[in-house]
Amino acid sequence: MEKVEVAVKKVLVDHLERSPLLLLQGKGSPKKTLPLWIGEGEATAIFLTLRDIQVSRPLAYDVMKNLLEKTDRKLERVMIDDLQGGSYHAKLTIGLAGDGIKDSPVGGDGIVSKTGEIQLDARPSDAVALALKLQSPIFVSEEILQNKGLDLFFDANEDEDG
Prior knowledge:
Blueprint lengths: L2 E12 L4 E8 L6 E5 L2 H11 L9 H11 L2 E12 L2 E10 L21 E5 L1 H11 L3 E4 H7 L14
Helix pairs in contact: 1-3, 2-3
């Protein structure tokens, strides 16, 4: 499956839907922008991360970030790769960081690969929030971006969350 790396361009409110809207723009060419309607909690977490605003107590994504770091794991990438019934689906690929445990058992369900990578199903909004916390790349399948992406372009100097 071909994939396109994307960047978070905007977090805003869709006043018609009364819902936060996340805009992911392809980094390649042609640039398409994928709109994702997300929950308020995820929008808040993404906005706080983009603005580098610290909170007094860790939020759920901070806890997940800390858990990965403390267990010598890293988020290799996020992949938004499926659309079912109007809902996008994402996968988190988690790998070993540094000199982590090299002999991770391979699960019978195929979740853990022979290289120790783990793939987890996730909502795209949660996956993006965690990727931003860990500065991990975000990808969208080329098919989804071409079929569902919009021709919205942003100035290269414009804020990424405006």
